[in-house]
Amino acid sequence: MLVAAAVCPCPPLLIPEVAAGAAPELDAARAACTDALGVLAASRPGRLVVVGPVGGAGCEPYPEGARGSFRGFGVDLDVRLGADGNARPEARLPYSLAVAAWLLERTGWSDAPLEGLGVGESCAPELCARTGRDIAARDERVALLVMGDASACRTLKAPGYLDERAAPFDAEVARALGAADVAALAGLDPVLAQELKVSGRAPWQVLAGAAESADLGGSLLYEDAPYGVGYVVATWS
Hints:
Blueprint: E1 2-8, H1 16-19, H2 27-42, E2 47-54, E3 59-62, E4 67-69, E5 78-80, H3 95-106, E6 114-120, H4 125-136, E7 142-147, H5 166-179, H6 182-186, H7 190-195, H8 201-210, E8 218-224, E9 231-236
Parallel strand pairs: 1-7, 2-6, 2-7
Antiparallel strand pairs: 1-9, 3-6, 4-5, 8-9
Helix pairs in contact: 4-8
């Protein structure tokens, strides 16, 4: 059963070494993520499942101990998802889960065993919901760390240029995540999300599936759009 969830953005720019001189611009987001992980720890989960977006339409599991790297950004920084575990050497974390691994390392996570799940950005809502229900059934006390960004079309300089639909979409996402509104998240339009370059739609719908019968309350910790990309931090408990 799902007992808590934290929702965090997943841009590699969250890593100060990657952001370099621009690092202070995301200090508030990093602080909010730290607070969100504190809520997960306080829930005393028996298992933590880290969910993040990947390419494609399916799901890819990543065992505890899987490793990731930010060397592609010119930074000599490697991360690991939890303890060594039984990860295969080739089980390399996608960037969304590598950012999550960095957040967990930064906060010293040791409260429960964990595993990762990459969810395809084109994954159908029905599959997302079913995946979430399956995750919630794995343990009496399951927590989720859900990674994903809102639209990338909030300004003229955003990666997806300016789209007038982006701000209303992100506002509804922030409201739904802050209110733990399962129905609203489950109803997000995958086509519109794709057009707005939203990476978090599928992971959020996995969260909605996991929380269907959990009766959790939500809290919005952070919402902003630096660089024209929507970033949201929220907790459910």
